[in-house]
Amino acid sequence: MAAQFGRRLRRGATTTAVAAAAVAALSASQAPAAPQSDTAAGDQAAAGATPSGDSAATGNSPYHTDLPPLNTPNKPGASVNLPVTGSAEAGIPASVLAAYKRAEQELAATDAACRLPWQLLAAIGKVESGQARGGKVDANGTTLSPILGPALNGQGFALIKDTDGGAYDGDSTHDRAVGPMQFIPSTWATWGQDGNGDGRKDPNNIHDAALAAGRYLCAGTRDLSVAADLDRAVLSYNHSTEYLRTVRSWFDYYKRGTHEVPDGTGVLPADTGGGTTSPFPTPTPTTGTPGGGTSPSPTPSPSKPGGGKSPSPGTSTPPTTKPPTTKPPTPTPAPTPSETFGSLEDAGTGTLTATAGEAFGERVTVRAKNKLGKPLARTSVTFAVVGATDARFADGKSTVTLRTGADGTVTAPVLTAGEKTGVFKVTAVAGTTKPRALSWTANVTARVADTIALTGDKALTAAPGAEFTDRVEVRTTYKGTGVADTAVTATMITDAGTPAENDKGPYFEDAAGDPVRTLNLTTGADGVLELPEIYADDTEGTYTLRLTTASGATVTVELKVEAAPAA
């Protein structure tokens, strides 16, 4: 069932003058009267349709309807640079404002074609939660107490049965909108983001919620610098023309200038409900309470238009004021099959394998198709790195959203392996109403040393029956980078031409102190290996020590056994 809402004016707006001011504010917003339907993939319904409540980010939950003051921060056309001070309504709490700007920067880097302005997030945040109840958030941006909408039980609101077991909203029967941007749990499960990099996706955190709202608004092929696309995006958040007009009013207001205020000092909307855990008040009864409750105060009878006399005492005259009427928006035709996202397919991605620290030789490429099976351009595709890995796309990003070209294809950025070896997944997802997902297995292999070399150049000599004074040290590398834990075999050989193990000359000692001429060793940090002591027997001469890695890299060391010169 779609949520049903009546028009709600600000508290105290009971006079003709205030009502006229509200109308003037709406007119100043330049909000369109009949938003158009979105023809791009993933958008929901025509503006004039009545979609189900769970197809909107908020489940069509109620929202604050306060309008901006008529005295905007700057005159139309003036600079949009942020003033240091200004009207109270123009102030946005510091953490909340930082979250909106951070989300704008993230979207500019990963989905630049969307052109998300932070002022749009601020307008939605104002309408949904009064900027997180005036900025009542902790140092990490998490609300000090939950912000919950009413149960979406179909009684005056949409009917959305529980989808999260009460994990986010504490209600295991029906869903409730959650957090400063008022996501319903089922929408958060799809669009939730980690905006502050703490490893969690929390709808109660303003950084996470603001980034999720930005990505939701940028779904499909929307360009929010285009008025029609912006209207579609807002309507996808809450399917109400009044909601669109209210958000548009605050959007225009914030574009004219705003300023930062300390957390917790932001101005709350008039209908906040007194600081309860829900941003929405309990309606005040307008009739007497059954069982002897107090009736409301009588309303004075208005004078007759044109200066006529008021009704005489004892005469009951019904009010002549007509309820406001709203002209429903004109539905626009649904997108044609050639404009509608249909499927996502692999467009020739090869095997994803890379050595630790190096770029993958292959890049993920996909093709989007419409309902007719033809290539579909300008379709948003989100590529993501999933699993226990430190492999990342450019600029250290694990998620990137790009759009398909004229041939329907799009290629993910170059993926670079980290130091963690093993397998993980790379996914590509397109579509919002019925998302299509593809995944590939990627593998990061350990570096294998391609070089082994001595770290010093000292001549290694010893007298017969004595110990070599200097120790042999080598380093294994892969393309110049040290490789730890590399297996190295050290062998005393007869000569380089016939590398058989020598039965005389220098030797090592095993744990029992017996002579051995072959040892299996392993490099340490940065690929460095220092060999144990080497001893000389009584036979003078020049001998060869060979060190070899499993990959076949080899280095030889010359060892001389000679008597010390006579004094």
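(ticket continues) Second input and output from the same batch:
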Amino acid sequence: MKDYRFIGKATTRKDALDIVTGKTKFINDLSFPNMLYAKVLRSPFPHALIKSIDTAKAMKLPGVKAVLTYKDVPDWMGGLPRHVRVLDSKVRYVGDAVALIAAETEEIGEDALRLIRVEYEPLPAVYDVEKAMQPEAPQLYDQFPGNVLPQGIRVFGPNPLQEVVIGDIDQGMAEADFIVEGTYSYENIPNPLPPESPGAIAVWEGEDNLTVWSASQGPHILKVALQKMMGSSNVRSIGSPVGGSYGSKYMSWQYVFPAAALAKATRRPVKICYGRAEQLAAFTVRLGSRIHGKVGMKMDGSVTFLEGDWFVNTGAFSEMAQGMVAVGCGEAQLMLKCANWNLKPKVVCTNRTSSGQVRGFGGQELKCALVPILTLGMEKANIDPVDFFKKNYVKPGEGYYWRDGKWWVSKGIDFTNAIEEGARVFGWQEKWQGWLKPSSVEGTKRRGVGVGVHGNADVGEDVSEAFVRLDPDGQAIIYSGLAEHGTGQRSNICKMVAEILQISLERVSVTAADSSINPFEFGPVGSRGTYAIGSAVIEAAENAKKQLFDLMAPKFKVTPEELATVDGMVYVKGKNEEKLPWIAGLGYHGTCLGRGRFQPDFTLPNFMMIFTEVEVDIETGKVDLIRVVSATDVGQIIDPPSLINQLNGCLGSAGIDSALFEETVLDTRLGRIMNPNMIDYKWRTFAELPEMEHAILETPFPSHRFHAIGVGEIAPSPGPSAVLMAVANAIGVKIYDYPLTPDKILSALGKMDTLKKGGRG
């Protein structure tokens, strides 16, 4: 690889000092003169009609400035398709919004909530995805019979991917040496657990001009979405630094709507910030995923057909479920080389809190249920799973239907070397003993190993635009709507510009993520920051440098192509004894403004393989994650610490640990989430981290001048299925029920009756 001045080097993040010294202003740190605080009254019922609401006492409480019900909120609509009002006369999950309050302080707002009197007419509720589709099931929305939402998502194009139907299933059956089938699910609806709770501030100027400050991963796309959902309002969207998102805080109209409605009613700024319990019980969780599937294989590991019904439980409404289904269907094809498909998804509403965008975006949900079916075939053919994935993962020249419904051909690289390097680092050949066989046994402790794979072509999704301005004093400013969501991406695009212009990092800065000053930016989702956003920034920097050289060439009496620049000085290549500062060409009152634009490109899928080793105590059922090795190829590492942090983040944010203990516990008698706190919601602490190692290759991608690709979003996605495989191998029994809590292990081993007789409570 080329040796760069900044690229590939560990450099201090530009925002690091402000973060560690507390100077960074997150959304809850922001305050405005005359600002009010929003509170939401939430439903205690999973499904009910609101018969009456009495807000008189709440309105009389000193400090309360507005109380809104479904009768007096704006007629804005969210969801996909648009079907969710700001407030409605019907509630559809425990935690659904019933009334909104704006008060002088949060404490007054909390007091006012207790003064609202609501009369409900409870309705039957349904939580199971297949039961919800039955004719006698309670109906959440009159316009969606059978609780099945229409598929498709217009933003993905006129013919978005809604299913995978390719080839001839009957022919695939005839070609198969054997057929396996089963029903498997990934339905523990874990929470992405961003450290910072969701929040926004809304301010109106006149009737149609709304400014929103939000902890949003995609502030510019939030502006676009809000303007469509709210009608003619002119929205200015400003993204504050995000204290973690993991996909969940992107187009977050769910909490912007209440703030905007209250701000409109009071003509004052209104802030809304969820409490932790509110975040866990009334905000985004993962999709529930269940597959009835059938797979045909040959003894050499070739897959002849895949047929299945994929039932997707999106909860009370769809934020982006159809989009996640489209991407998941594309990602399945990256993992599995197969000529004959008939995979039919259905997106279904149930009476629990809604599912939304979470890191892994559909593909993780699909594969966590699909891979266990594939392992039945691997076991029957006695195929090493590493060899199976190596054989079947997409290679250059092979194609797939992506989320836009179009056929794309991979122009990327062969990930075989990354797979083999990961296996070497993990010691796979030494540890793998075969299906349902432990790698070691010591007393009651048994160890097992497993592996999973994932990839995504959304690294090149959607449009990014950027400007780069060169100032006479040798500084560069990047105009980009890129929000900082914890990964250091804003700092990394500064590295790209510094490398192109050969100026110090201190001389490069990025504008605030403000839609009123920056060009369009889709946002850092789908691992697109490195390729898509990076490409726009690179093009803008190169364009600005060309303009500078056009201005400077007459000074040296050479062509622009003969010039170079370093540290704010321009010189003729090979003759660096004579240099002129940028100001010599720009003048005291001039600048150069370079422009860059990235167009969607789905031809460069990325890749992640995760190897796991677990230890299971067959007497207690406790599972410990001992070791994790991630294997990938990123082309060119832009910033080593950023990449390592992304890979280390594979455990939480509804990632690997959703196979072990991360679970949103829903009481289906009452419809309530029972663990909306950080004690009862089980998650890993720093004291319980496993050994982690990464095998990272750098094979140049045909992406941009730095030949890099992003992998951040897919870091956790192969992990859950890898852990399931490892646990099954450790205990010698098939088990595919997430999460693998001790009771499930003991039940699989036939020991639950003994445990109960032993008197454990």
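Agent notes: Residues 628 and 692 are 5 Å apart (CA to CA). Confidence is low (pLDDT under 50) at residues 754-761. Closing as not reproducible unless the customer responds.
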